[in-house]
């Protein structure tokens, strides 16, 4: 689950600025968060179907609200920094994966011999958390020594007509309920680098709970720009009360 702090955009022609956050801190970008943001703004009557520019900490993305409620997020340029990187994981042995950027830094692993299913969430979480710790200890990073804070496992899909299933561990040791927009973007960049998809070709990514994103790429000025399409639904309205007498109103800090 991801929160979105709505901000005034720096460019007045843009629809909004946003800062995404989860249970431990801020995120550079969030695909499912952007879909949720656009859906919420539509629910509030602030926007109508069409294209909207959203400013995020890693750059401006565009989001197209469709008449049927679906949202297509045209993400920031994504790329693979390193392929087939070996990492030694205590208790598991050596694993190999790709380091890629999709708005956040990912380590993407295909060969892991684990079943991607909800019944295995605890095992999958332990495994991916061990990968993240090993990456940090072995100083395997993204560009400019940025920490790789998302781990993504891939496996065979369980839904017909879908290309892949994933499990994504986010920075706060919580798994992504969506197919992960930035993770799918990173995957698409790797697929394009390997020649496994072409511009405009559709790739369907299934999440650990069975939801699906549709993704594709276009190349502009030599850079891969992924697009992710999915849906979100408003299920509650709430009002936060910040009582100045409450010593824990800003949360519990360690």
Radius of gyration: 18 Å
Terminus-to-terminus distance: 21 Å
Order of helices and strands: EEEHEEEEEEHEEHEEE
Strand content: 35-45%
Largest sheet: 14 strands, mixed
Residue runs with pLDDT of under 50 for 5 or more positions: none
What structural class do the secondary elements suggest? alpha+beta
The number of helical segments is: 3
* Count of DSSP strands: 14
The proportion of residues forming helix, as a percent range, comes to: 10-25%
The average pLDDT score comes to 96
Categorize the overall geometry. Answer: globular
List the topology elements.
Blueprint: E1 3-7, E2 16-21, E3 26-27, H1 31-43, E4 50-56, E5 59-65, E6 71-74, E7 79-89, E8 93-101, E9 105-109, H2 121-137, E10 150-155, E11 164-169, H3 181-193, E12 203-206, E13 212-220, E14 223-230
Describe the fold and architecture:
This protein has 254 residues and is of the alpha+beta class. 17% of the residues lie in helices and 35% in strands. The chain is built from three helices and 14 strands. The protein has helices at residues 31-43, 121-137, 181-193; strands at 3-7, 16-21, 26-27, 50-56, 59-65, 71-74, 79-89, 93-101, 105-109, 150-155, 164-169, 203-206, 212-220, 223-230. Strands 1, 2, 3, 4, 5, 6, 7, 8, 9, 10, 11, 12, 13 and 14 form a 14-stranded mixed sheet that branches. The protein is globular and about 50 Å long. The two termini are 21 Å apart.
């Amino acid at each position: 689950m991801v929160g979105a702090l709505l901000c005034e955009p720096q460019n007045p022609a843009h629809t909004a600025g946003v800062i995404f956050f989860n249970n431990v801190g801020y995120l550079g970008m969030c695909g499912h968060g952007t879909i949720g943001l656009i859906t919420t703004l539509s629910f509030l009557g602030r926007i109508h179907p069409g294209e909207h520019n959203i400013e995020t900490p890693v750059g401006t993305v565009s989001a197209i609200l469709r008449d049927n409620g679906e949202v297509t997020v045209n993400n920031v340029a994504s790329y693979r920094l390193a392929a087939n990187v070996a990492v030694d994981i205590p208790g598991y042995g050596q694993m190999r994966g790709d380091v890629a950027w999709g708005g956040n830094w990912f380590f993407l692993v295909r060969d892991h011999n684990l079943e991607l299913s909800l019944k295995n969430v605890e095992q999958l979480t332990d495994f991916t958390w061990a990968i993240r710790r090993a990456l940090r200890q072995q100083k395997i990073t993204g560009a400019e020594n940025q920490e790789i804070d998302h781990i993504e496992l891939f496996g065979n899909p369980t839904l017909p007509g879908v290309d892949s299933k994933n499990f994504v561990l986010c920075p706060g040791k919580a798994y992504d309920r969506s197919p992960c927009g930035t993770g799918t973007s990173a995957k698409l960049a790797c697929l394009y680098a390997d020649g496994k998809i072409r511009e405009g070709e559709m790739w369907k990514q299934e999440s650990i709970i069975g939801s699906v994103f549709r993704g594709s790429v276009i190349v502009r000025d030599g850079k891969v720009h992924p697009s992710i399409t999915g849906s979100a639904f408003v299920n509650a309205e709430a009002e936060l009360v910040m009582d100045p007498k409450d010593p824990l109103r800003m949360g519990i800090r360690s």
